[in-house]
Structures are given as structure tokens and as C-alpha cells.
């Protein structure tokens, strides 16, 4: 059970037939709606990062970054959701276990994932050399946008992990386990 109930109960029948991503969004918005003005502002801000016509980064890249940060955050909700399964296959998600060795990631994706890893684990280790490597693949604006995505995923992912919005999750993420959860592994998620 979630640690914070939605501001307005969401009947089970409203969640039936929705994808895992849609259920998670409804439940998260339900919790944030305890402060409606903040929920509205967050949805505008997060939406501006996610909308294809406003962002400059490929959806595939931002989804890979989101899933990798979800692993570091141990946010089961975030790991269980695939916002763009057509762009990010389960085989590609499995590449996130060792992105530096993955054949199916571009050099730009690898450096973005290295940046994301450090944002989630040791942000002060990000140095001039890493920013220079990012500049080999991204414009200044794209680097800012990547950083904003990472900031959203690190901060909101950690907060969401504490809320334990697990009721809607794939069975892989339902019960507690001793080993870390991963977005890669057996059983395709959609």
C-alpha cells in the first residue's frame, strides 16, 4: 500500500484497461494533488520536457536515462514503466545493465548515461572532461535539457520511491527482495 493516499480516491475501475505508465501517472498525480497548485506546475514543467515538439533530445535517449536513474534510485515504479516501448525494446533495456559494453547504444547515448549515472550517484565527480565529451555529441542547449531530465528523474524518482506506489506494478516489482531491483531482466514490461 502507498505511504501517501491520493488526494481523491481512484476507483479500481478507472485504472482497469490503462497501461502501467498511465496507472502510475494517475496515482502519482493523485498523491501530488494534495497540493493542486504544485501538481499543475509540475505537470507543466515535466510535460515540457517530455513533449516531442518541445524537447530537442530523442525520446529513446531520455527513456534510457530515466530507466538507468530509476535503477540507482531503486524506484520500482519508475523501473516498471515503459513510456515508449516502441523506441526502447526490452533488449535495449537489458543494455543498461552494462551500458559501457553495449553494442546497441550510440556513443552519444553512452556518454549521456555516464552523465546520468554520476548525477544519480556522485554528481560532484562530473568534471570538465565529461562536459567536453558531452559537447562532442550535444549542443549546449541539449546538455542543459539532459541535465534537467536527470534532475527530474533523480529528485522525483527518489521521492516517488518513498511513496511506494507499488499496487499497479508488474509482479517482478511487487514484493520486497534482498537484491536490488533492475529495469532489465526476465519478463517483458509494457
Automatic annotation (TrEMBL):
Residues 36-116 form the Carboxymuconolactone decarboxylase-like domain. One of its GO terms (molecular function) is peroxiredoxin activity. InterPro entries: AhpD-like (IPR029032), CMD-like (IPR003779). Transmembrane segments: none annotated. This is Unannotated protein. It comes from freshwater metagenome.
Amino acid at each position: 500500500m502507498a505511504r501517501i493516499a491520493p488526494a481523491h480516491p481512484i476507483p479500481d475501475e478507472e485504472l482497469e484497461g490503462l497501461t502501467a505508465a498511465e496507472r502510475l501517472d494517475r496515482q502519482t498525480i493523485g498523491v501530488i494533488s494534495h497540493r493542486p497548485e504544485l501538481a499543475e506546475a509540475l505537470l507543466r514543467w515535466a510535460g515540457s520536457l517530455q513533449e516531442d515538439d518541445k524537447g530537442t533530445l530523442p525520446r529513446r535517449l531520455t527513456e534510457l536515462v530515466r530507466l538507468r536513474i530509476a535503477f540507482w534510485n531503486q524506484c520500482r515504479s519508475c523501473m516498471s514503466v515503459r513510456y515508449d516501448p516502441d523506441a526502447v525494446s526490452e533488449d535495449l533495456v537489458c543494455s543498461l545493465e552494462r551500458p559501457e559494453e553495449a553494442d546497441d547504444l550510440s556513443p552519444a547515448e553512452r556518454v549521456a548515461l555516464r552523465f546520468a549515472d554520476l548525477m544519480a550517484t556522485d554528481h560532484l565527480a562530473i568534471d570538465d572532461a565529461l562536459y567536453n565529451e558531452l559537447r562532442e555529441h550535444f549542443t549546449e542547449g541539449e546538455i542543459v535539457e539532459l541535465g534537467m531530465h536527470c534532475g527530474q528523474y533523480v529528485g522525483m524518482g527518489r521521492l516517488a520511491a518513498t511513496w511506494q506506489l507499488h499496487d499497479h506494478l508488474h509482479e517482478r516489482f511487487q514484493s520486497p527482495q534482498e537484491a536490488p531491483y533492475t529495469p532489465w531482466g526476465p519478463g517483458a514490461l509494457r
